[in-house]
Design goal:
This protein has helices at about 1-5, 10-20, 30-45, 50-65. With about 70 residues, it is mainly alpha-helical. α2 runs antiparallel to α3 (about 30-45).
Length: about 70
């Protein structure tokens, strides 16, 4: 794992961002906040727009958690 962090830091950070999205939160506000954080992290890793990443991450996580509440922990 340490070798992967040294050679592929963007891939490792992207993986961590995906793990963050899998944590839904108890309320819609928490779901949006967790998704926004994951979206910002993903955008930062990929060199994209941070605000757009936050918006997409928040919307995606809320939509997922509301559609599949049994899959969220």
């Amino acid at each position: 794992m340490l070798g992967a962090i040294k050679t592929q830091p963007k891939a490792v950070l992207a993986f961590v961002a995906l793990l963050a999205v899998s944590a839904c939160g108890d309320t819609i506000g928490k779901q949006g906040l967790i998704g926004a954080g994951a979206g910002v992290a993903g955008s930062a890793v990929l060199g994209g727009n941070l605000l757009a990443g936050a918006a997409v991450g928040a919307a995606g996580n809320v939509a997922y958690c509301q559609t599949f509440p049994d899959r969220c922990n």
